[in-house]
Amino acid sequence: MTLTFSERFTAWVVDDSPMEAEAVQRVLAPSGDVEIFLDGATLLERISLAPLPDVIVLDWMLPGSSGLEICSFLRLRWDEAELPILLLTARGAKADVVEGLSAGANDYVSKPYAPQELAARVSVLVRLRRAHLRALRAESEVRQRETDYRRLTDNLPDVVSRIDHQHRHLYVSPSVTRLWGLPAEHYLGKTTVELGMPANQVAEWNAAVDAALRGREASMHFDLSSRGGLRHFHSRVVPERDEEGNVVSVLCIARDMTSQVRAEQAMRESEERLRLALEVGKIGTWDSNPQTQEMTCDARAKVLFGLKPEGKVHPDHLFEPLSPEDRERVRTEVDRALAGENGGLFATEYRTPLSADGVERWVSVQGRVFFDEQGKAVRFLGTVRDISEGRRQEEEARQMAEFQEKLVAIVGHDLRNPLSAIQVSAALLARKLGEPSLLRKLHVISTAADRAGHITRDLLDLTQARLGGGIPVRPQPCELHAVIREVAEEHHAAHPERDIRLDLADTAEGVWDPERLAQVVANLLSNALNYSPPGTPVEVSSQRHAEELVLRFHNQGSPIPEELRSRLFAPFKRRPERSAGPKDGLGLGLYIAERIVSSHGGHIAVESAEPQGTTFSVHLPWRVPEGA
């Protein structure tokens, strides 16, 4: 509770005579702020809504309720110290004075009055109230200090106790209860032996207490079992003296060090785990002082840096054997870290020269610079790791991938000419042959050649996507819905038993590559037909937005498993629920479709759930042809 005071006081004057009320106001105005009420009802309404005034000057004779009745009513809630009341009336008989004071008034002034007397009596009542408020404030502060002290002692982690010359406890702080569950009173008057301290610690305890009783401060460590298990304490034992300097008791302050001890133990275990991890990972460590240029390396770091096992190490020793390109690059990266760039973090890779064991290595060096309050680099430490095997594997993988890509390109390119010859020859023979059995065989030849042609085209597109920086597109004005209808008719001819539904109400005039988008539509439509149950429809729709055209390919059937969606557009991937057959490709359809759409600046999204089915959404940026 906080109470504040101002130099001026507040006074409420209640008098049905405006002239009398103003006269009181003139007397009190030099020292106070005066508010006038012409009846008791207005006063009671006001006092329920506003802070209490310092004093009320109340006329006895009021219309409605009299001053005595108002005074008696106010005293039901506030006493004389909280709300001083001065009765003001022309009735001066002793009986009237007694009646007024009995009603709860603090003082009484008879009319006519001397202004100095009225001011003096009001001043006395104001001082009375403010003294009361100061007392309340002081009492509140004392209670708060008591509360704070109790909260401090109740939550103090240290156990504080006072020991007499017979080693008995005179006082124990409440914090002891949290440790052992017994109230502090349980320990009073007892020695540590009587309280059950282990015998091997009693002698050390008694020696520390005796030393303090002789005037010397002592300390000790001891372990005690508690409700939370074994706890570790450090205790200071301090002599307490009287005015003559005689030791009258001993103050023991026992601090629970369990967390610190456990942290130190955990740190030691962590350091051991780190040592083992460095050993298993064949990682070396180094540490340097940028100010003194002193540097230390463990044995493995020296081997990986190509340094001699013996002798001191200087940071410049690491740069000298490097090639000129690596030397300048690594030195620049070190300087940036020492300057505080990237928070002082340092990471680089380079080839080391022949080391003491005659091996040339690739190493990964990582470190961090630590700075003082002025921003000066004071420590630079880190690790070094042999990454030669990883580099070798990466190079082999890169060469293999490059070989595979080139092989695919060569095969795809060289297959196109003989396949074209087969297709043309089959078409010419079909015109001249009339025997049905021969025509069926020509149809098989033509179909196989078409399939091989599609595979060859997919292989060439894969090569362009992965080696050529993306599948090239040649945007031109086109009507995309016409492209979709043409592709849908081709697929319906190949699958007459399936229902392909188109919802393409409006035209879609835009700037795209019609041949490549026909390839996208064909791949997604084939995917929808292949992965939906026979007899179910496949739906193709389009929807135009402000800046894009969205094509949707929907089919029914079981949803795509969640674990496959992240690699759905990867090359050479097919969903496992469809067994490979004569009409299957290489699993490049979705990959090529995604690459073509990406080359247009768009993207493909997938939604697949039970029982809604699967929907592939193609989002294409819409650019209207010039002049349209």
Automatic annotation (TrEMBL):
EC number of this enzyme: 2.7.13.3
Histidine kinase domain span: 410-624
Domain PAC stretches: 216-269, 346-399
Modified positions (4-aspartylphosphate) in chain numbering: 59
The PAS domain, residue ranges: 145-216, 270-341
Xref: CDD domains: HATPase (cd00075), HisKA (cd00082), PAS (cd00130), REC_OmpR (cd17574)
Protein's recorded name: histidine kinase
Cited InterPro entries: CheY-like_superfamily, HATPase_C_sf, HATPase_dom, His_kinase_dom, HisK_dim/P_dom, HisK_dim/P_sf, PAC, PAS
Organism name: Stigmatella ashevillensis
Record Pfam families: HATPase_c (PF02518), HisKA (PF00512), PAS_3 (PF08447), PAS_4 (PF08448), Response_reg (PF00072)
Keyword annotations from UniProtKB, A to Z: Phosphoprotein
UniProt enzyme class: transferase
